[in-house]
Amino acid sequence: MFSFCVLAGAFAVEKLPRVSPSATMRDSRGRMVFRKRALVCFCAVAALATAPLRAQQPPANPRSPAPSASQQGVYLVFPFENAGASPRLDWLGEGLEELTIQYLAGAGEQVYSHAGRSGELERYGLPASARLSRATMLRIAQDLDADFVIFGSFTSDGTSLTVDSRVLRVDPTALQPPVHETGTLDSLMELHARVVWQLLSGSDRAYPLALKDFSKAQRPLRLDAFEHFVRGILAGEDEPRLRELREAARLEPTWPDPAFALGETYASRSDCASALPWFAKVPKTHQRYVEAIFATGVCRLQLNQPDKAEEVFKSLQGALRGNSTQDPGATTGVSGADLPEILNNLGIALDRQGKTPDAQVDLRRATDLDPDEDDYPFNLGLLAFRANDFAAAAGYFRDAAEREPENPDDRALLIQSLEKGGKKAEADQEREAVTEALGPSGLPVIHIDAKGEALARLERIKTELDITALRLEIETTGTAGNSAVANGTAETPGSHIRRGRQKLSAGSLDAAEGEFRAALSADPANASAHQELGEVDRRRGKLDDAVKELQASLEARDSAVVRTMLARIYLDQKKPDLARAEVERAVKLAPNYAEAKKLLERLPNSKPGGGAQ
Questions:
Q1: Fewer CB within 10 A of the end CB, N or C, for the chain?
Q2: pTM (2 decimals)?
Q3: Distance CA 14, CA 128 (A)
């Protein structure tokens, strides 16, 4: 089976805004965006792209039975509280969280990652190890459309270890009885396997796995290797992170998780020569294989090996496309060809080899799939500019500038294209508009050399991957018993919303709307469904309808991200006073929400601190 995790901090508490590579989320317009180090992993056993490959790769434990999921839903795990142990064991808080995630995924459950949860706390302005009330945990789970929350505590005298844990059902809210286990500290792995199994079997009388079978489904790990791995992923600096991860990899050389984390860390330092061997250690059956292959392609581009990059991205496309055809009953309509980040990078690789017509096809497809992203039309503009087709270049750069009005490079190249195309008056008008919007020094000077090398340096490679659609394909594949449809069990509003987001990610607005309305049929006050319908209406240009849906979402549950989305729509409707009122409420609700603060600073008659003048 194939357990799929997305590197990022996605689905953040207020569904975070797009920022530079280092975490992932949804921005103020509802886009799902991937940032590199905060990782939202949605680990769910799914047969994504690996059906033709499974026979080639042995499972982590050949004796393990096929995982089988119990309750239909998604788990969110919080760090376990250190309730009296020595501070030197503080790493166990996140360690037990990570171990819970691994055990759930190994047993076929759907679960958010440690880093995804960390991103949520960041949005609240809370440290990753903050002690949270059950009400706060519940709110975060609701924002993530999770179905179950797992939390707990531990105590240790340095020799023995006691773990207490509970499951909190999100809807309807219900707290399951506590699970209590005590053993030696050295028996952590086996002890916690018993804890997680009791959580699953205790909350679901029909849970199909006995403890023995549940344990066999897990990868056996050395405790010292696991500790080094956890300390590594928690390290704030690269050097201690690399040191801990290398030690984990040395102690457990066949464990792919440290290898992937090492590759990711080296890649973040632009050390692709060191990253590639680690990415190569991630097997096809591992949950991070697709991410490792994508990162490998990015490295090949950064090393200026476009032929190898083309091979990597095309093979990834083929594998992902193959997954959508392996299951005749699948209804996702998503394939590797539908991921705009892959199409963008493939287009760059093709263009560097002189295959410009093919590059244009891929970049246009990426542009159509993501109507908010400016990088794809920008890259098309570079291709047209290099070919001296300045009219086409101006059109692409204008499209990019409309998608991201504050990007000065988009505006600068639009002006240059207009000037070289003989439209000086239009170029001057655009320059004045940029000066008014970005200030007198806001427009960068871009010198275009005769060989076009400056243009090549402006290419926008996507180092971030939003695989929301693939991650959510678990809702329709029916593998490992995780599909409610396949099992004949009732659909939930959450399953409709997750599937609707998948359709929205693939650009299927009608199908997405159908899923969101199905969620509202079951739960008319579902805040997430109204929010997503607002995004559908916004993409269709039905701004009044979008406003109504977002207001309905806010009536059900207040949210800084929804208020910021609403503010942007009010701006599009030329209603700055209403926009300011909404974004001020957003900042008051979530003081650390960068997208809201940034928008408030841009609005007329507002101070950077948040209040109107």
A1: C
A2: 0.75
A3: 16
